[in-house]
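Lab notebook: predicted structure, single chain.

Context: the supervisor wants predicted structures on file for every construct in the current expression panel, including those that have not yet been purified. This is the next one on the list. No modifications to the sequence; it matches the entry in the shared construct table.
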Amino acid sequence: MVKDMNYTEAVEYILSVPKFTKKNKMENTVELMERLGRPERDLKVIHVAGTNGKGSVCAFLSTMLVWGRKRTGLFTSPHLVKINERFQIDNVPVEDGDFLKAYLKVQKAVEAMQKDGFAHPTYFELLFAMAMVIFKEKQVEYAVIETGLGGRLDATNMVEKPIATVITSISLDHTEILGETIEEIAFEKAGIIKPHVPVIYDGHCKEAEKVILARAEALDAPISALHEEMYEILGNTEKSIDFWLDNGYSVHTRVTVPYLAHYQVINSALALLAMEVIDSGIPMETCVRAVKETAWQGRMETVMPGVVFDGAHNADGVREFVRTVCRVRKDRPVTLLFSAVLEKDYEKMIETICAQTEFAHVVVTEIAGERNVPAERLAEVFRRYVKAPVEAVPQVKDAFRRALEEKRDSMLFCVGSLYLVGELKGLLAKGL
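Prediction complete. Output recorded below exactly as produced.
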């Protein structure tokens, strides 16, 4: 029984779940939600899938809805510092008490399920159920929900009729699970499309677009696509980019996105397009102001003057990171702090980074846990590709301090893993 658990014990239990369960069939998640009273049916769900940009698009959408005075729930992953970050009401993470209350309710249903022969939910399935309980109890009107891995078989896909589905950029990632081609991965992502429900998608990749269009046509789902000719970058500072957006609804809207990266232009434009499709009653001027005020941690985020955190951790994300660095390096030298996890092709990531840009100094470190790559191993790879000094500093705290020392009047980019970003954010929160 779990009735006497406190918040810390609940979090510890949730984090232990991957040790004794595996991904379940959708029927298992449906059974859990049935026992909870199907809370998702009372929400206006915007369902978001894709390889890169899901979290950012969700953040833009949530902020627009909040600025439009709609009570909004946001469910995303992963968290960077505290697990509560995954459940937000009006862009504020839930309090520990609300977290615990939802956990206890869900776990009671889980125990009853297990007695009847059903499997224990996975880590992600448990969190998704908690999110829906929290949103229902907090009387949320709109719920912006990010898929976990994939889409078609994702626990979040048990939502029967969202008000819209959004598919962000698609590229090769998690190929061992989702497929080895863009088309195969797009098929999994397009699995969130529902009959007659509008789908708004990133149309830059033609291979992915073909799959999305076929799925939408089969389900008679109205489509809206973002293509390159629909926006034009006007200029940028160290913290933001200005661009024109012509989405076919509001002609030539000027938008400021508060990030350095070109991909955030695409993500914010896609979110604005989605809001035009969704019948929310929020004026476009309000949505544009909301974009400028959107905060999303660890995605080309300027955390202090000249210091940027970016969670790029796959090939497409690294290419976008390099694109940003190449633009910045024209005006200022760049120092790099890098780390990676074992399951990523970190050698290819490093090769891509070094092939197109130069650094004044490189510091490599290793994240906590069993999945880390030794700092000296990363340093060996970097030394094959750069002329700049490369230092291996195993402790993240020491590595960040060393990188700040080398930064001087340059830019410092901290990149390679969201886990690195999470540790750095935790250090900043404690005053380093």
